[in-house]
Amino acid sequence: MDIFNFAHVIIGVLIGMAVEPMGRFALQGPDAAPHWVLSKISRTIVAVMMWGFIIFSATFGFEYTLYAVLEIAIGVFISYYLMRK
After folding, report:
1. Total domains present in the chain
2. DSSP per residue over 3-66, as a string?
3. Average pLDDT of each block of 10 consecutive residues along the chain (85 residues)?
4. Is the alpha carbon torsion for 68, 70, 72, 78 positive or negative?
5. How far apart are CA 16 and CA 38, in angstroms?
6. What pLDDT sits at residue 3?
7. Which domain holds residue 27?
8. CA nearest neighbour of 84 among 39, 20, 18, 35
9. Which of 50, 51, 57, 61 suits a disulfide with 68, CB 3.0-4.6 Å?
């Protein structure tokens, strides 16, 4: 069970790191975001992955849902601080 929890955290953080450029693209325009964000299909895929991860976590209970949201938020903050100019 511990390996599953570790993998769950890593996947959540990585999804959060992919979600952050989407917000930067929406707020600051295409010049502030990586080139892969310009494609509508890539934004759709990342959104589906995020919601799928939250729904998958919800099948284990409310506690895992909160953990999933927290993991995605941590990934967003890590990506924000790594990608600042």
Report:
1. 1
2. HHHHHHHHHHHHHHHHHHHHHHHHHH-GGGS-GGGGSHHHHHHHHHHHHHHHHHHHTT-HHHHH
3. 76 91 76 77 90 94 92 92 78
4. negative
5. 18
6. 64
7. 2-83
8. 20
9. 57
